[in-house]
Write a structure and sequence with these properties.
The protein is an alpha+beta fold. The protein has 2 domains: 2-79 and 405-466, no CATH class; 111-129 and 164-372, no CATH class. The protein has 11 helices and 13 strands. It has helices at residues 2-8, 12-22, 27-36, 86-105, 165-193, 198-202, 245-258, 296-306, 335-348, 380-398, 430-456; strands at 44-54, 60-64, 73-75, 119-124, 206-215, 221-230, 260-263, 272-275, 280-284, 287-288, 291-292, 370-372, 415-426. The termini are far apart. It comes from Streptomyces sp. 900116325. This is Replication initiator protein RepSA.
């Protein structure tokens, strides 16, 4: 058994559990459940029953988990973090990609004329809290070494004893407020450059954005945002003639320079004013006004990638830290990251309303990783709803039922659902976890193969065939 486990790459106990699961009478149904979750690493277990009646046709459908493996229905956890559930994070990233792309080129209820609007990809960063190891264009770090691209020292303090760890975690903690103030000033700066009052500007234009937060290796959060100028009613109305990429670029830089968040003194910590760093990047998107710049697809993919990541990219933990002494259980935690976490706990008593210890695993950051304005594009909820509707139609086809009429507004009113569900646990046993990961890999391979095949298809002669 030990030799077989070693050959498979698992420990003997996991192998025994794998054999138990594979030889269970409902193994095929268990695999089907896992496939339906996309190979979720931490599925939610539900027990209960559901009855559905179509009052127009009299069709009756009854479902109970009593016939399922273990008497449970497994559904995807929906966690956006790739470190916790790669499968659900992949779905979340896909939704984020479509959300961002809809705001760039249209689709999902957004007109394709948004591609003609002034649009930029802006990056706002944190200020310096002390010199860190890096790879400058000169090739030589301040420490005098030429670091390799994957060197573990990159992003860590050159002089830890002089690095402003308190300032770094306070900046992370207030970054959401700083972004909010930036958006307020941005609208003011756009109006000023158009020669309008704010009220008059609102009658002619609307500033929309979708943004994502990313942690740099030094442990400081920064933001990437797609920012667009529309007409007064959003994407359905054209932008005014005075709205240009150059105007938007200038307004973003001015707003970033004006936005500040004051932090009062507390205990032994002095008062300070938080502001953006000097490294602000603004790039036009797509071919606009004769320019060829960063593509819509590249922007969408970049935002989607970081929508599934958090502070764990710096080496920190991807879960809350109950007590500071828990860090002793993680001897491989980078020293720079450990100091940032300790700074959160050190500041917690002086700034209790900031919940720094509670958010120490995020190095103090407590904002949303992905946000957008209401009129930027579609919503994640709408995308999830469309996916749920598609799965419901697929289920009806498999059971030989007539498809629901998506254009019929009376469908919901004529379908009666009586359900009772109870939480019955979460996750997999060790053997189930290994098998689920294998299923997830197969699903990913199939998706990538299908995508490559689609990309390799020749363009049709008749464009109407692809409408």
């Amino acid at each position: 058994m030990a030799d077989t486990a070693a050959a498979v790459g698992v420990d003997p106990l996991t192998l025994v559990d794998m054999l138990r699961v594979a030889n269970s009478p409902r193994f095929e149904r268990w695999k089907e459940q896992v496939r339906r979750t996309g190979g979720c690493a931490q599925p939610i277990h539900l027990s209960g029953h559901c009855q559905t009646v179509d009052t127009r046709t009299g069709e009756f459908f009854e479902y109970s988990t009593s016939s399922e493996p273990g008497g449970r229905l497994r559904i995807a956890c929906g966690n956006r973090r790739a470190s916790r559930c790669p499968s659900c994070a992949w779905t979340y990233a896909g939704d984020t990609y479509h959300l961002i792309m809809a705001g760039l080129v249209g689709g999902k209820g957004i007109p394709d004329t948004v591609a003609e609007r002034p649009r930029v990809f802006a990056t706002l960063t944190a200020p310096s809290f002390g010199p860190v190891h890096n790879r400058p264009t000169s090739g030589v770090c301040r420490c005098g070494a030429a670091h390799a691209e994957d060197h573990p020292a990159l992003g860590t303090a050159i002089h830890p004893e002089r690095y402003d760890y308190a300032g770094a975690v306070l900046w992370n903690n207030h970054a959401g407020q700083l972004w909010q103030r930036f958006t307020i000033y941005l609208r003011r700066e756009v109006a000023a450059r158009a020669g309008l009052t704010q009220a008059a500007c609102k009658e002619q234009a609307r500033v929309s954005f979708g943004k994502v937060a990313e942690f740099q290796k030094r442990g400081a959060v920064h933001f990437h945002a797609v920012i667009r100028i529309d007409g007064p009613d959003g994407p359905d109305t054209p932008a005014p003639a005075w709205a240009t990429v150059e105007l938007l670029d200038d307004a973003i830089r001015a707003a970033a320079a004006r936005a500040t968040v004051p932090v009062p003194s507390a205990g032994r910590f002095p008062a300070r004013t938080l502001r953006w760093g000097t490294q602000i990047d603004v790039q036009p998107i797509g071919a606009l006004e004769g320019q060829t710049d960063v593509s819509e697809q590249a922007v969408g993919a970049y935002v989607a990638k970081y929508a599934t990541k958090a502070a764990e990219t710096t080496g920190t933990l991807d879960r809350r830290i109950g007590e500071l002494r828990e860090l002793d259980l993680h001897p491989h935690l980078p020293d720079h990251t450990r100091r940032l976490i300790e700074a959160c706990w050190d500041l917690d008593a002086d700034y209790p309303e900031r919940l720094l210890a509670h958010w120490s695993h995020m190095l103090g950051f407590r904002g949303h990783f992905s946000t957008k304005t209401p009129r930027y594009s579609t919503t994640l909820g709408a995308l999830r709803g469309a996916r749920a509707d598609w799965r419901a139609q697929q289920e009806r086809r498999e059971r030989g039922l007539d498809p629901l009429d998506q254009d019929d507004d009376t469908t919901e009113d004529t379908t009666l659902v009586i359900a009772h569900w109870e939480y019955a646990g979460q996750g997999h046993t060790p053997g189930e976890s290994w098998l689920a990961a294998s299923i997830a890999r197969d699903l990913k391979f199939n998706r990538e193969t299908a995508r490559e095949a689609l990309a390799a298809m020749p363009a049709p002669d008749d464009a109407e065939a692809w409408a």
